[in-house]
Every structure is written in structure tokens, then in C-alpha cells.
Amino acid sequence: MSRLPALLALTLTLALGSVTASSATESEALRDVVVVGNSADGTVSFIDSRTYENLGSLDVVPDLDAILAGMDPIRRAAYEVVKQQAGGDKFVDDAHLSADGRTLYVSRGNLGDAAAYDIASGRQLWRTHLDGFKADHAALSPDGRTFVVSAITAAKAQALDTATGRITGEFATGTYPHENMYSADGGRLYNMSIGVTSLPKALNALKGAKQVTVADARTLKVLRTYTFDKGVRPAVITPDGKTMYAQLSYLNGFIEYDLEAGRTLRTVEMPFSAAGAALKPDDYPQNSAHHGMAMNGTNDKLCMAGTIDDYTAVVSRPGLTTDGFVHYEPGALPYWSLTAPGGTHCFVTLSNRDEVSVVDYRTAKEVARVKVGDFPQRERAGKVAEAALPGLSR
To answer: CA-CA distances (angstroms) from residue 328 to 6, 92, 284, 308?
Structure first.
């Protein structure tokens, strides 16, 4: 009889241990998502990359009123100028998820800063003001420790420690740095600059240095620069680091560029829509004819947003032949392309419709349309912790 309590205690311990282990496994479960920065309303939407369900959104400008109230006259004047040049409030420029799916890192456009948020609670973990007056595209290092953001008016890319928000380094770029991306092996950083977009095309020579800057990802030492006549917009680089496909300011299409030789191999002009052909180059949004490019998981197809033409084009490489188009409603403004986890579908933001279009690379057909927030732009793929999802607003 004396052994019975011990047996009961052991049974209870094992049962509780099983429950605890089950809870731990559940809390660590991750879901593949695409996060979409809704730049005008300052939120980030989370879309299940397989079911296309909008899981909810996170407010990433909860401190907006306090920030505006605390600006001195010079910074407030600069904020208003940036706002005017951007065509209105653009609070979310880019957003990335931590590897554990619990933290969201955001570059906050017109506010000129970067911030981190605990997704489950919505609590701001840190906020760091960058040099200059506007924060642009961002990249998260493969190890998740560094968040690199373009300080666009300061002509530099700045690296932040994701744990603290502390600026740990920087490197000089061309004028108005835009996209940042890591090489496939994580060893290099690429920054694309677009030049001063507020100047007309006739003054292109005065827009500044339009280039791709390559830096060592660890030391941030600049290794090489490539100079272009027009601003370098969204781009993709092949895993071997030899070839870049890039959209350029004013070009209704894209180029294929040899990164070893430093020269353009091919320029591909895509068809204009009637509305696109009627526009003057100075009427293109931020100088962009086409703005959005992605490559599928097998690296043999490109997905390109025809911004002024209201379509998405799927193009096969290496021949660079067009497989097909997805045409949108007039004025939809497709503004970014992203290959979702799995590598078979391309997510395209339709900024003026507050929607995301999901395009099948294989068929070049739209398979879903997802409603998101106000003026979606940048999208990034990642994983979100299931346990953090209750923190999102529906």
C-alpha cells in the first residue's frame, strides 16, 4: 500500500509533463505567411501564404501622435516636405519577421525611423531614428541579428541590432538609396539607389548617383559599385550572384545585367497599356513605370508588376519570353512582387485597390485576391508564431 501514493505521484507527474510538452510544442508552432505593409494606414497585414486568408493586422504607428507632437519646427517642416513628395502619409515602408515569428521589424517611411514590435501584445520593443528624414526599404540578415534600412535622404544604409535597435554600422550609397537585399549566401549586401525622384526626367543628370552598391555583409565595407543612367528599382539576383534582373526608372520593362562583367546584357521592353502609354514620364509614380520583381523557387520564372500598365507579367528565363499576363482594373497600381513560401506563387500588391493579387507562376493566372489595409506596398515572406496570432486585429 505504501507504494500507491508514489505510483500516483509518478502518474500525475508524467501526465503533467505530457501536457506541458504539448503546450510548448503548440506555442512554438510556426505558420508560413506574407506580411504586407499598408503604408497609408500604418498597419501590417499577415496573410497565410497557403490558404490566402488574411489573419489580421498589427498597428505599427501607435505612437504617431506623440511623435508628431514632439517634433521641433525643423523636423516637422522636413516631415511635411517628405509627405508631399511621397504623395501623402506613408508610414510603413518595409516589414520583416524574426525567425521565431514573434517580433516584427518595421521601417517607418515618413517618420524616418525603424521600430520593433512584439506581435502577441503589440508592444513596441524599441524605436530608432535614422539619419536624415525618411526610412526606406529594409533587409533582415539571414541570422536575424541585423536589420538594414536605407536612410534615403542621408544617402546611406544603416545597420541596426535587432535585439536593441542600436545602430551598429553603415555604408555610403548612391543618391536616394532604395532596395536592400542580401546575397543567397548571406555574405554580401546589395543597395539600389534611385536618384532624386522629385526632379523631372529632363533633369535626370541632376538626380544624383544612381547605382548598385555592394558591401560586405559583416564589415559593411563597400566592395563594388555599378553605375546606371536611370534609377535602379526592384531587382532580383540569381543565387550564384552572377546575374541581376532589374527595373529602372522610366523603363516599361527590365534589364538583364551581368554582375561579373558590369554590363547590361539585354533590355526587355514590355507592352504598354492604353492608359500607361498616355502618361508622360513625369507622371509615373515616383519615376516608376514598372515597380515590382520576383523570381520563383526554381529560378526559371520572373514575376513583374506593370505599375502604370495595371498588369502582372510572368516571364520565363533564360529566354525572357512572356508566359502570360494578369490584367487588373484600371488604376489598380500594382506596386510590388514577392514569391511566397513554397516558391510557386507570386503575391502582387494592388496599392490603389487595397488588395493583394496571388498569381500562379505555372499558369500565369490569378488564383486569389486578398483584401488588406490602405495602400499596400512592400511584402515580405516569413513565419509567424501561432501563439502570437491572437495579438492581431481582425
So the answer is: 70, 24, 18, 11
* pTM for this prediction: 0.92
Which positions ≥6 away from 311 have C-beta within 8 Å?
Answer: 273, 325, 326, 327, 328, 334
80 φ/ψ sector (left φ>0, alpha ψ -120 to 50, else beta) = alpha
Cβ proximity of 54 and 66 under 8 Å:
no
Listed residue (271, 185, 266, 193) closest to 225, CA to CA: 193
pLDDT digits (tens, 9 = 90+) for 123-161: 999 999 999 999 999 999 999 999 999 999 999 999 999
- Taking CA atoms, 229 is separated from 139, 180, 181, 201, 354, in Å, by 25, 19, 21, 11, 33
Task: State percent of the chain over pLDDT 70.
Answer: 93
Each as own residue / partner, the long-range contacts of residues 364-370 (CB below 8 Å, 24 or more positions apart, any chain) are 364/314, 364/323, 364/324, 364/325, 364/326, 365/324, 365/326, 366/312, 366/326, 368/52, 370/47, 370/52, 370/54
In the three-class reduction of DSSP (H, G, I as helix; E, B as strand; rest coil), residue 198 is classed as coil
- Give the gyration radius of the chain's Cα atoms: 22
Q: What is the reported pLDDT for 86?
A: 85
Taking alpha carbons only, the member of 178, 112, 187 closest to residue 336 is 178
Average pLDDT, the chain: 93
Whether residue 256 contacts residue 247, with contact meaning beta carbons closer than 8 Å, is answered with no
How far apart CA 376 and CA 386 sit, in angstroms, is: 24
pLDDT digits (tens, 9 = 90+) for 249-259: 999 999 999 99
CA angle 271, 86, 373 (to 5 degrees): 80
Query: Residue 53 corresponds to which cell in the numbers above?
Result: 486568408
Q: Reply yes or no on whether the pLDDT at 51 is more than 70.
A: yes
Stretch 301-325: mean pLDDT, rounded?
98
End-to-end CA distance of the chain: give it in Å, rounded: 57
Whether 197 contacts 85, CB under 8 Å: yes
- Cα atoms in the 13 Å half-sphere on the side-chain side of 75: 16
Query: How is residue 195 written as a grid cell?
Result: 536618384
Q: Residue 45 half-sphere exposure, CB side, CA atoms within 13 Å?
A: 26
